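User: Hey, my collaborator sent me this sequence without any context and asked if I could get a structure. I don't really work with proteins. Can you help?
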Amino acid sequence: MMALLSLAFAACDDDYATEVGPQSNPQENLLQLNDVSVTTGVQTINISELINGENGEDPIKIGTVILNKENLPANAVLTADVQFATDENFENVITVRAQDFNESYDINVTPSVLQDAYFNSITHNPTTRQMHVRTILYAMTAGESVAIIGSDGIKYFDTHIVNLTPLNKVQISPNYYIVGGPNDWATSAAERSIKFNHSDVNVYDDPVFTVTFDAAEGDTWFAIGDDEACDAIGNGDWSKLLGIVGGNSQSTEGKLDFRYNMGAENSFCVPAGAKQIRVTINMMDYTFEVKAINFAEYIYEAGVNNSWGGIQQPLYCADGNGLYTGFFYAKEDSWTGGLGAFKFRGAVDNWDNGNWGAGTYTDEGGTLTDTNADNLFATPGFYRADVDLASMTYTLTRINSVFVVGSAINNDWDKGIEMTYNVDELCWECDATLNGDVIKFKGNGTWDTFDGNWGGTMDNIINGSNDNIPVNISGDVHIKFYPMCDTRSYCTIVAR
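Assistant: No problem. I've predicted the 3D structure and written it out in structure-token form, which is a compact way to encode the shape of the chain:
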């Protein structure tokens, strides 16, 4: 029988993300469906109870084949695959090869094989889960190909549900904190004020945590702990904190481990000079990355609207805290499905100094990532963008209309003249008749929001400024307003 099975499985692969049963070539079935049935075996699988270390593994009995052996040729054998799926339609499925049949025709699966397939292709989450199970049977003769028992439409036996509890291969806590840093170590553990950010996804499916915090005045020393570690510090036990494997305190990336495993503190240290520090940890493989951050004065929007950075669309950070504000138009393109595609980057003309794209996004904003970042999308229109590189988030505020108002516009400070956005020149524009004096630009027809009040001077228009803009021309004019960001926004007024 082993020689026959070796022949059958020679062309199989071990990628459990797809079906991996024996390859079959068209041939007449050796058995008909009414010759075979399968009874249900175990309905609860706890893999940790089945793997016995040095004593091996206890097989998982999925079912038993009931066979009309009179119709089975003397030189034929049976093999089986077992499919496990998270849904009743078996769309999210793994296929595990059954062990060789014993004399009782039990369909047995090896626990470690099922564990690996589940962990690699379904989820890392160790909680108990209902799985839909079914069996595929094959008949094979010596020197011949394998044939599925049944047809493409009817080939599954004994579809039922099992409760599967996988191994807890990695322990991931729901919360992690910076202990130390700019704060007193014991106090920071007690207050847990510097908490890592995490998505809404289960931590076993998304094991990455990120935090950005202010650096200390000199060198910044810190460790990482979860709630259990912080509680232990309150009892004088510091050994449950995470530190750097290898002991190089200034490592910017590497492996994490607990102090009690390393027999040393192995704390992190970022040398003096950083304004902020960003720490990213992956608790599935216990790795870390530390970045010292000195936020630049400008970042830039790049998208369909400006030929992906061909025309500058800067955002401005006034005080080095990583909070940037600017304005841009999300322009629809034929391949975006009706949405405007864009990203943010750190350099005016390249992607080498920061490439921030979609973590999550809506028309109102979302989260950013700089690792293999996809484009961001928004409904076409003009927006104010507020980007927080410290927390890696952004918000978008839609500005549906802009008006030019003022004493130079017949002293109309209410609606004045509504402007039209020029998507090619990236500006708002209108024709007007001026009588000298001053103007301002008003977003969404209101003074109530920070987005609706631009003032200052023609060559330096400030968002939120209370200052009017003096104009030095009267008569029929054409006005163009370029609202990019503070220090870069301006307008032009030319005679018609």
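In plain terms: The radius of gyration is 33 Å. You can pass these tokens on to your collaborator as they are.
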